[in-house]
């Protein structure tokens, strides 16, 4: 096993220059959002998707567009509105009266990085069309199924303000997002850097430093990152503590209506190994679990009215669980 870890570590180190190059290119434009960049990279190499929540103006769109440029990938943005139709996302069949045939017109979902801007402003049938494509990596138009390009990642945003007239994602659908990240305001120093860098007309060139083939190769390397049985048990303890907190001597049952699904355990394992890979390690540690736990679990915990009444958020529940569950 030690030999395998050493070999995988050497392979990871060979890819480190590529990952560092992506960081360097994105940071030409993105200021003070290292955590967001890390989570985007984790989702990308884990074949997952991200749901972002933050007020307007925090560079969510800029982040994914810049990353697409640094990766040399195709980028599309869809602004979700109440009048959007599924065909506007996945495409439709167009009738040709001259030939009497239907031909497919593929929608903007046929891209590598898709920004679903304010996903909760579109009705459920549009959300379902997008989330089905996310799960299956394919789209059916008419009687023909079309595979989506690889890699394929959806970065959806939600605005916590102005909730009137929105269509919140059902719990069963929001669970398909690997990570939910909360994007906060930058620090004063970071905002000064933003102001100094972009208050005048600038022409910042972002060069592609990684290809789609290299991303898929890194995904293969991720499969070789080791997760010990004790670390796996730690993951299961955390997830099961969200379902049956009393079994772990946690007084949280009155706050949690439903705990994490099996996807929570699966994504904690994959995301922790991806986090280890980004840090140049070929094995996951409990610290990797702790670093990624909030982003994997916050949208998978359904809280009770009592929790809302006491202003208890999912992050507070996760913090209590991480503090109480013994670390292997």
Describe what this molecule looks like in 3D.
The protein is α/β, with parallel strands linked by helices. It folds into 2 domains: 2-198 and 207-216, P-loop containing nucleotide triphosphate hydrolases (Rossmann fold, 3-Layer(aba) Sandwich); 226-324, Magnesium chelatase subunit I, C-Terminal domain (Helicase, Ruva Protein, domain 3). The protein has 13 helices and 11 strands. The protein has helices at 2-26, 34-46, 60-71, 86-90, 124-136, 171-174, 188-198, 212-222, 229-243, 262-278, 286-297, 305-309, 314-324, and strands at residues 50-53, 75-79, 91-96, 101-106, 113-117, 138-141, 144-147, 153-158, 179-182, 256-258, 302-303. The strands form 4 sheets. The chain has a 5-stranded parallel β-sheet. A hairpin with a 4-residue loop joins strand 3 and strand 4 (101-106). Helix 2 packs across helix 10 (262-278). The protein starts with a helix and ends with a helix.
Q: Could you name the key traits of this structure?
A:
alpha/beta; five-stranded parallel beta sheet; globular
Topology:
Layout: H1 2-26, H2 34-46, E1 50-53, H3 60-71, E2 75-79, H4 86-90, E3 91-96, E4 101-106, E5 113-117, H5 124-136, E6 138-141, E7 144-147, E8 153-158, H6 171-174, E9 179-182, H7 188-198, H8 212-222, H9 229-243, E10 256-258, H10 262-278, H11 286-297, E11 302-303, H12 305-309, H13 314-324
Parallel strand pairs: 1-8, 1-9, 2-5, 5-8
Antiparallel strand pairs: 3-4, 6-7, 10-11
Helix pairs in contact: 1-3, 2-10, 9-10, 10-11, 11-13
Question: Brief overview, please?
Answer:
By secondary structure, this protein is of the alpha/beta class.
